[in-house]
Amino acid sequence: MSGIARTQATGGAMIEALITWSSSIDDDAAFVREDLLGSAAHATMLGKTGIIPVEAARSLRGALLALDASAGATVPMTGEEDVHMAVEALLTRTVGPDVAGRLHTARSRNDQVALDLRLFARDRAATMLRATTALGLAMVERAEAETATLLAAYTHRQRAQPISAAFLLCAWTAQLTRAAETMAFALGRCNELALGAGACSGSSLPIDRTLTARLLGFPRITHNALDTVGDRDFALDLTWASARVMLALGKMSTDLVDFSTSEFAIVRLDGSIAAGSSMMPQKKNPDVFELVRGKSAHAVANVTHLLMLVKGLASGYNRDQQEDRRALLSSPPLVLGALDAVARSLPHVHFDRARGLASVADGFTQATDLAEALVQRGVPFREAYKAVGALVRQAVDAGTPLRALTLEQARAAHAGFDAEALAVLDPARAVAAKESLGGTGPASIARQIAALRSELTALAARAEAVPSLDQIARAIAQETL
Ligand code: ARG
Question: What pLDDT digit, counting tens, does each position of 288-305 carry?
């Protein structure tokens, strides 16, 4: 422990066990590069504004960028309270105390950690946004190949109405696209320069936050120093967006788990994505999708963790905030792992067209379409609904499919029926007729696919606008000083 952050006023040395217990160093290892680059940008700004001598700024920048080029691997992360102290202690040894002692000018660890975490969260938000939109685009492409695959849509997990598999894929993609939109929002919340807030009220020195923001690729600068050091909303938003992606993948997973059972049997999983049983030789289990659903628990817990952490905190920095780390660090790998697993698995998920068709062939799922055919012939909906209900009852009692209905039987239930009205009992006809906006008809699906594609492409572009850490390092190195 170098004792950098201690003075005579602090008092004698802190009990070693308490330093170890209160240290964040193990978790901080995840953002050493962010810390080094943030410091390199800060040193450059201090030199350019004349707050510290240019030679000192150059040597600080050079030492920090050299450490960054080794991906921070050479920063000894032991014996210090956090990554910020570890870097300053190392610089003290390498460039000497006179130069190293100038780096923390107009800066506090409070705005430094706020910067590091935003840089980390922004980078991961961009990575998650790229992966989420890429999967969404792969799903709509798959939808295009499944327009002729019919199956039942479910409400209350009971067969409801006939749809196409393309429509189901678009439904999954719509939810995933909203999650991507939430991720883009979280990215925006991370995309503000926090450095320059100081401990809690700014600096009396002529710092240039605009310059630091430019070097680090931040389009905006936080507005209020006191708010900035206590703000973890960006972390909350990132975990929330992460949970949203996991929940979207979770719903799709539940459908696939169900549909691949021998009871539904609408979907078949290749052996390459199915797991076996250690005891039952016949088993072919959908473990990948169960795990995607299961892992969403951790992602949701991370949101709750951060909500509990910030609830009741006073304005300004509070050391409690150090406990943000696990939630922030663990959400991105959960999301990226699940997105990768689903992206790899999707090509090995096959819709069984014959079974899908069989699930709607008996005609009962077309009961609403039959009632709507009467409505088209001028019958009030409730009257049509009751007439069809009676026909369904007759068919169930007779043990026959609704499709076996004769015109004579239909006309006995309601005089409005004609031969053309009964044609909707063909599931393909029923699906083709649902051309209302958002419906399962083919023209509607084509519109949905086009809209999802353009939304996903626009969202992916938001991720591309974020500079990588390597690009940031180059920008700092190239700044004239
Ligand atoms: N390790 C701390 C954290 O991660 C850094 C900020 C500490 N600030 C302080 N004044 N003790 O939150």
Answer: 999 999 999 999 999 999
